[in-house]
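Researcher: Please translate sequence to structure tokens.
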Amino acid sequence: MSLITPDFGLLFWMTLIFGIVFFILAKFGFPVLTEMVRKRQERIEQSLKDARDIEERMASWTQKEAKMREDARKGQALMLREAAEEKNRIIADARTEAKSEADKLLAEARTSISAEKESALRDVRREVAILGVEVAEKILREELSGADAQRAYLEKMLDEASKADTIK
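Model: Translation complete:
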């Protein structure tokens, strides 16, 4: 037996053992291995499909989130605009109300001042009239201190009254 050329018997037994081992592996080992590889391949494909679905959902969620953010920004801008308009309206209403109140107070003050002025003018006229009568009374007393002066004054008054009656 040489190392380089094996004997026929050795080749026969090696081929027979190889065939038996191959048959056992083909009957029991390869189907198990093939099934495991197939299951693993299915699991990998399912994982890839799930990953694609998750990516699609994430993209959809990202789009929804971006849309929600944009809607929130628009809503915030709208609220701020409405708040500014409301502020301006309230300020305008307050100015209008303050102006009308001021006009009303000014009109009341003018009316009050006018009434006070008329009252003061009446009081001054009354005082002037009283003073005029008092001055006239003092002058007449001095001028009419004698009986002759009183008669002359009465005659003068009667003449004026009779002239006034004839003119009418």
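Researcher: Any highlights?
Model: The CA atoms of residues 88 and 158 lie 80 Å apart.
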